[in-house]
Each structure stands twice: as C-alpha cells, then as structure tokens.
Design goal:
Number of helices: 6
Shape: globular
Organism: Blastopirellula marina
Protein name: Prepilin-type cleavage/methylation domain-containing protein
Pfam families: N_methyl (PF07963), SBP_bac_10 (PF07596)
Number of strands: 14
Strand content: 15-25%
Largest sheet: 5 strands, mixed
Transmembrane segments: 32-55
Strand order of the largest sheet: 8-3-5-13-14
Number of domains: 1
Keywords: Membrane, Transmembrane, Transmembrane helix
Length: 364
C-alpha cells in the first residue's frame, strides 16, 4: 500500500494500487456483446435493403438503354434497306417464308449470314435436319444463330429451340418484331394496315397521311409466348372484335401445358414469330389455366391454303420485361417508350400507316 500526504484533520488516505503488469492489461479483450452484434447486423441488413433496389434500377436502366440502341440500329437498317430497294422489306413472303428481320441482315453487319440464304428456299430447310443445315462453316444451323441485335438484355427466356428433336438447336428467338397493324394481317392478296405486311414492300410515300413519326415500325416482344392458332374463324369485313371476346378466345384455347410458343424463330416471317399487332395494349395478360400470363392468338397463319376464305387475323401483343413499358421504333427511326396504360385508341392509331388519326406522342 502507498501512503498519501496528510490531509485535513491529520488523517492519511490510503489508495490501493493495481499491480497488474502492462502485458496483462493489454491482453484483456474488449468485445461486442451479443446485443451489440445483433444491432450491427440489423443495420447492415437495412443498408443492403436500401441499396439493392437502387442497384437493380441502375442495372435495368442500363439494359433499357442497350435495348433502345438496338432498336435504333434496326430502324436505321430499315431505312438503309429502303434506300437500297426503294421500299421496306415484307414481313413474310410466299416463296420461303423468311422474316423481314432476316432481310435486314446486310444492314446490321451480318452480310455473310445473308449471303448464305436463298430467299426462294423455305427457311425450314436450314434447320438441323434440313438439306441446308451445314450451310455455315461454323456448323451451327443458320436459323439457330444467336444474333445480339435481335436480343433484349432484359429478356429472361432466351434459349435455342430444338424443333427437330435431334438434340441440335434449330432456331433462336427474337425480342423485336415488325408492326402488322391492328388485327387483319393477310388474306392471300391484301395485307393489313401496319407498316409491314406479308408479300408487301411498303414505301415511305404510303406514310404521308399519318406521318413516319406517328407510325410504329418495330417493338419488343417476349420470347416463348404461349399462343392459340386456328381456333376461330374471322371475316375481316366484320371489323375488329370486342376485347372481351378475344380475351375469352385466348383464355379458352391457350393451355399452360401447350408446346406452342411464339417469338422463338427470328428467321420466320409468321406474325407469331416476328410480328405484333395493336389489338391489345402492351403487356396485356390473360387468365390461362387459372393464372395470369402472356398469350397470343392467330386464327390462320400466313401461307395456309384457306387463307383467302379464312384470312390471317392476329392478336399478337407487344411485350417486354421493362417495368410498365415497351420500347418502340417509329418509321422515322426515332425510339420512344409506350406505356402499358396507353389509351387503346391512341395505340391503334400509331399502328396504322394511313388511318388519318391525330396522335400526340406525349400521351404514349
């Protein structure tokens, strides 16, 4: 013990001294209690929860920008095609059934692929079990080529299709499709009111009434969309059916267990594969087997022998995985978003090339 100097009253104070060595004091650990640890973990969890949506939004914004750039390139390719051939390409032709997208290949830096195509030969001949399966030196069947220009980075179902069942990819999807107008597509002689149509080379002059800046050309679609085909006969002279009627047709005739998938073949000019119409507004979904999901309808595909008596009518909807919108290329080459809540009249107005409607683009 150490004695301190005398204090008032003559008493001395005694203070105990801690004789622990410096090393002993240094070895004593100051740690978190369990409660403190749980608080820290909770704070970190909250911060991650706050940051994650922001990160996801930033990533989606980047994907939408990439999608927009692809659509701009496709719009430019359409105009390059028009400059070369004095018209836009047909959406489908009766010789080989090739898509309008396939005809844009030379203008999206895929001239070597286009050079391997005989437009008079059906595209099905190029799948893995066809006579032209090995036309490309890479060994990949031409319709199964995965072309970045036809892919939206937000799409979640991009995968090849083995149509022949031999374990070799035959086709690859496209997330972009040509506008076929409102509902009527083709009757063997005439095509619909959209920017593109079967066996039709549309010229810029045909858009003078509505204007190229007010007419849709290309939009987004989702790969592997269920569809119904051949379940109803429509007479195009009767006009466009009611929304409820078409929704009932789709819900009744489309099955979740069906193997009928649209927008899985970028080479095919069929409206179910590389087309869309403005019958329904973007991203419309239907009650399929008790669950709301995307689905499309075509009563009679292009090229069928009875298409004159039973014309091709289509409710093939523009869709995307961008929240609430689809990106659209207009005929003037500009790209805008169209919301899924767009007024149906306005949406159908921008789907026609000569309807004469007055359209305000800021209401899309």
């Amino acid at each position: 013990m150490i004695q301190l100097p005398a204090q008032e009253g003559g008493k001395r104070l005694v203070r105990p001294i801690n004789y622990l060595s410096r090393s002993s004091r240094m070895n004593r650990r100051e740690g978190f209690t369990l409660v403190e640890l749980l608080v820290v973990i909770a704070i970190i969890g909250v911060l991650v929860g706050l940051l994650l949506p922001a990160v996801q939004q930033a990533r989606e914004a980047a994907r939408r920008m990439q999608c927009t750039n692809s659509l701009k390139q496709l719009g430019l390719a359409c105009h390059s095609y028009h400059d070369t051939y004095d018209a836009f390409p047909p959406s489908w032709d009766s010789r080989g059934g090739w898509s309008g997208l396939a005809r844009l290949l030379p203008f999206i830096e895929q001239a070597n692929v286009e050079a391997a195509i005989d437009w008079g030969t059906p595209y099905t001949v190029y799948q893995s079990d066809g006579a032209a399966a090995n036309v490309l030196k890479s060994g990949t069947p031409l319709p199964a080529l995965e072309l970045d220009m036809f892919k939206c980075p937000s799409e979640v179902n991009l995968r090849p299709v083995d149509a022949s069942g031999d374990g070799i990819p035959d086709y690859f999807p496209s997330n972009y499709a040509l506008s076929h107008g409102t509902f009527f597509v083709y009757n063997g002689g005439n095509s619909g009111d959209g920017a593109f149509g079967p066996n039709r080379y549309t010229r810029i002059a045909e858009f003078q009434t509505d204007g190229t800046s007010n007419t849709m050309g290309i939009s987004e679609v989702n790969a592997f969309t269920l569809f119904s085909s051949g379940s109803r006969t429509y007479d195009n002279s009767a006009g466009i059916p009611a929304l409820a009627d078409m929704a009932s047709v789709i819900s009744t005739n489309v099955s979740s267990s069906s193997s009928n998938y649209g927008h899985t073949q970028w080479v095919s000019g069929n409206v179910l594969q590389t087309g869309y119409t403005a019958f329904f507004t973007p991203n419309t979904i239907f009650n399929i087997d008790g669950r709301l999901q995307p689905a499309d309808f075509v009563n009679n595909p292009e090229g069928e022998s009875d298409v004159a008596d039973n014309p091709c009518m289509a409710a093939v909807t523009a869709r995307s995985f961008h929240p609430g919108v689809v990106n659209v290329t207009f005929i003037d080459g500009s790209v805008s978003k169209v919301t899924e809540t767009v007024d149906l009249y306005v949406y159908r107005a921008i789907a026609t090339r000569f309807g004469g409607e007055v359209v305000e683009r800021n209401k899309l």
